[in-house]
Amino acid sequence: MKKILLFALLGNLIAIAHAQVGSTSLTFQDPSRSNRSIPCDVYYPSASSGANSPVLPGVYPVVVVGHGFVIGISSYELIADYLVPQGFVVALVNTEGGFAPSHGDFGLDLAFAAHALQAEGASVTSILYGAIDPAKEAIVGHSMGGGAAWLAASNDNSIDAIVGLAPAETNPSAIAAAANVQCPVLIFSGSDDTVTPAADNHTPIFDGTNTSCKFFVNLEGGSHCGYIPAGSLCDFGEPFGGSLSRANQQAAYLALLDIWLRQVLKSECTEAEWEAALMQYPFALANSNLLTCLPCIGIDEDENSSFQIYPNPNNGDVFLNGIPKRANLVRIYAMDGTLITEERVSGTKEISISFELNNGIYLVELIGEVGKISEKKMIVIK
């Protein structure tokens, strides 16, 4: 056993302020399906853009994206470009791209990719080592990928959230699978969608979802293909589009998607942003305010800075600085989410703690009387 020798990683709020979009390609193997290969293009916060650039220090939730029928994954890079600077790792899953896709396998691929990415975060050989939140993930899917997101969540109750961009009925049925989906869900539905009309697809999937925490955004004049850039095979099925411009449709859904995911996966209080975005895009009509079912963690005016862990390295005495007054407990977790130890704190701004842990990476979290009040920070023990 060794006392902690750590280096403090910058908080997420500091890191993402300067984030560029780094990228890498990963292929996962699912041993439960004869080592089925699941290739993904992965995008993550980085200090510089480009392939295999170093990840920016921080711990980021995973967002897995499922493509539409015969639509290449490059059409969904706009989602990564928008979400990554906000502090997410985004994976575009590149399976079932042919003309006879297995919707069931696609759903399993999406769920498996989310958890495989979390395992990457715990692998010392991975470019994403230490950068993945081991407990927070969402699946976003367009059309066929949207229906597959419901199939994924119906088979895996550890998925934290799913989002459908014009989700399509699938085989097996996404409408039937919705009865087993209990996580928060968000559906975007274009009123001019002629490929997957809402009455036969989006609405029954939404109505059948077995959770009270569900959000439906109707994009007046929105089309089925308007979520992605022009030029894909999607346009052959909807050559005239909708009355809402593609630019406006993308601006609205990306803004609302980001705001919703930050509250669901990060517990940020974004309801004011949600209402402001709905005013900015009056053609986007939402059925509910975020606070109806999504709790969030507010920050007092004197608690607007991220707590810090130092020095770097140290002689065995660990200091935590900038602790909110509401904090009364410090918890240390393994990367798989297992609670290792905890220490009571007095609510002072700075404390000194000594832990004895094996070499490795751990997560530090501050807890208040009503639950967690901070994002987890990583400590590295050498």
Task: Give a description of the structure.
With 382 residues, this protein is an alpha/beta fold. It folds into two domains: 11-292, Rossmann fold (3-Layer(aba) Sandwich); 301-381, Immunoglobulins (Immunoglobulin-like, Sandwich). Helices cover 23% and strands 29% of the residues. The protein contains nine helices and 20 strands. It has helices at residues 12-16, 77-83, 103-120, 144-155, 174-177, 202-208, 234-237, 246-266, 271-280, and strands at residues 2-3, 20-30, 36-46, 50-51, 60-66, 89-93, 132-142, 161-165, 185-190, 214-219, 284-286, 308-310, 318-321, 327-334, 339-344, 350-353, 356-357, 360-368, 371-372, 377-381. The strands form four sheets. It has a ten-stranded mixed β-sheet with strand order 4-2-3-6-5-7-8-9-10-11, with helices on both faces. Helix 6 (202-208) links the parallel strand 9 and strand 10. It is globular, with a radius of gyration of 21 Å.
Short structural description:
This protein has helices spanning about 10-15, 75-85, 105-120, 145-155, 175, 200-210, 235, 245-265, 270-280, and strands at about 1-5, 20-30, 35-45, 50, 60-65, 90-95, 130-140, 160-165, 185-190, 215-220, 285, 310, 320, 325-335, 340-345, 350-355, 355, 360-370, 370, 375-380.
The radius of gyration computed from the alpha-carbon positions, rounded to a whole number of angstroms, is 21 Å
Q: What is the CATH C-level name of the largest domain?
A: Alpha Beta
CATH architecture classification of the largest domain? 3-Layer(aba) Sandwich
Largest sheet: 10 strands, mixed
Number of domains: 2
Give the CA-based shape: globular
Write out the strand line-up for the largest beta sheet, numbering strands in chain order: 4-2-3-6-5-7-8-9-10-11
| Portion of residues within helices | 10-25%
Number of strands: 20
